[in-house]
Each structure stands twice: as structure tokens, then as C-alpha cells.
Specification:
Length: about 260
């Protein structure tokens, strides 16, 4: 009898481990599908998440290979890519009215800017997220159906206590760089207490605030870098005055050093 009880208990423990493991894998798939469904609705661009690993007990998750494409009319392969994003949340909050995310850490993303300094792919995505935020707000008082649409999923309220982007690099290719791509690092971007009020914020609101913060760091750094290149080119042109062919040759060499060979 004792052996039978032990076997039953052992079988239940094994079953529990299998169930928890299955939930772990299914949750990762659910998170991945959620990002891939809601992301394009919010940004109006192609958004793909490669995979996600989720720990039920600790409330932590790691998102792998996030890809944010460019709006229509832009040709560079992507706007933002990130190999790894770490997330920590309160597990039980996913069953409530507001999902509480304790921290998000976007590690070493690559940001590509295409277009001008004031009008580019990032500013277009910002405009798109603003439109999505307004649309989500307008749907707040509409009757709810049992099956949620992607727009309704995007409108679910969340709270993010700490959002950190570290090690980001910006790539820019424009007429001011002579057709060459320049790459520059930007300082860490740190946002706190997003949606901490009783109403929280939507995914569109969160994306808008993050994109605003990213653009606020990227554009000035890019403008300064391009401006420095322009000053260098202007100085070379001044030095060429009155030097004939030799002056032109020096300018050509100087521009190559500025913009890369």
C-alpha cells in the first residue's frame, strides 16, 4: 500500500512538472504572438518577435530578436532591432485590469535613421503611434465583444515602473554623409513610472512615450555629428581657395577621410 501511494505521489509530481513546463513554453508562444499581433497595429509597420522565454514563478521573461520595420516609403531594412529584451512583471497582474511590468531592459538595440534630421522614419513611426493611441482612446467606451480584436488587445492597460535602453547605436545614411553610413552611440535612455495611475496606459501610449524618448536622444546626437562633418567639409573648401588643382586634390582626400573610403 505504501509503495502504491509513493508511486501515485511521484506520478503527480511528474505530471505537475510536465504541466508547468508546458505552460512555460505556451506562455512564450503567447507572448510572441501577442507582440507580433499588437506591434503592427501600434506602429503601422512590420513588427516581429523571434521568440520569448517566460518564467511563471519569477514573473520574468526574455524576448529575443525583436524587429521593427520601416513605414511605407522607406527602404532601409529596419528601423529598430534588438537581440535581447529582459522583462520583469507581477505574475498575477496578467489576470487583472492592468498588467504591472516592474522593469524592461532593452539591451544594445540598433536604430536606423533614414531621411532628414527633422523628418525621417522614426518621426513617421511616432506619428503612427500617436494615431494608434488616439484610436485606442476612442474605442475605450465602445461595447466589448467576447473575442478581442488586435486593436482591443493594444488598448489593454499596462503599467511600466522602469524602462531602460542601454548600449544603443544609431546608424544614419543621408546626403550630408556623402552616401556613407555613420554609426554613433547614444546615452542610455531611462524612463520611470509609466502608467502608474489607476487607469494605466495602453501599448500605443507606451510605444509613443518610448519613441519620443528615443527620438529626443537620437536626433540631437545625429544633428551634432552631421553638423561636425559639415564644418569639416567647409573648412576643407576654405583651405582649397587659391590653391588650384592641388587644393582640389586636398579637398578630395579630406572628404574621403571625413566620410570614409
Amino acid at each position: 500500500m505504501k509503495k502504491i501511494v509513493i508511486r501515485i505521489v511521484l506520478a503527480l509530481v511528474i505530471l505537475l512538472i510536465v504541466v508547468v513546463g508546458a505552460c512555460w513554453m505556451f506562455l512564450g508562444a503567447i507572448v510572441t504572438k501577442g507582440v507580433n499581433t499588437v506591434g503592427p497595429v501600434v506602429t503601422k509597420t512590420d513588427v516581429k518577435l523571434g521568440s520569448a522565454t517566460v518564467s511563471i514563478l519569477s514573473g520574468s521573461a526574455t524576448l529575443h530578436n525583436l524587429f521593427v520595420g520601416n513605414p511605407e516609403g522607406y527602404t532601409t531594412p529596419s528601423a529598430i532591432t534588438a537581440d535581447k529584451i529582459s522583462v520583469s512583471l507581477k505574475p498575477m497582474s496578467i489576470f487583472g485590469d492592468k498588467i504591472i511590468v516592474q522593469s524592461v531592459n532593452v539591451i544594445a538595440p540598433d536604430i536606423t535613421v533614414e531621411g532628414g534630421i527633422t523628418k525621417n522614419n522614426l518621426t513617421k513611426i511616432m506619428d503612427n503611434t500617436q494615431g494608434s493611441a488616439d484610436q485606442a482612446e476612442s474605442k475605450k467606451n465602445e461595447p466589448k465583444s467576447e473575442k478581442k480584436t488586435p486593436e482591443e488587445k493594444a488598448a489593454r492597460k499596462i503599467e511600466v515602473d522602469d524602462f531602460l535602453i542601454t548600449g544603443a547605436k544609431v546608424h544614419y545614411n543621408g546626403t550630408l554623409t556623402g552616401g556613407k553610413t555613420i554609426t554613433l552611440p547614444i546615452p542610455d535612455i531611462h524612463l520611470q513610472n509609466l502608467g502608474t495611475g489607476p487607469d494605466g496606459i495602453t501599448a500605443a501610449d507606451l510605444t509613443k512615450q518610448v519613441m519620443n524618448a528615443v527620438t529626443a536622444q537620437v536626433i540631437p546626437a545625429l544633428a551634432k555629428s552631421v553638423g561636425d562633418l559639415g564644418k569639416g567639409a567647409t573648412g576643407l573648401l576654405k583651405d582649397a581657395g587659391g590653391k588650384g588643382v592641388s587644393g582640389v586634390t586636398n579637398v578630395t582626400k579630406g572628404l574621403k577621410s571625413l566620410f570614409g573610403k
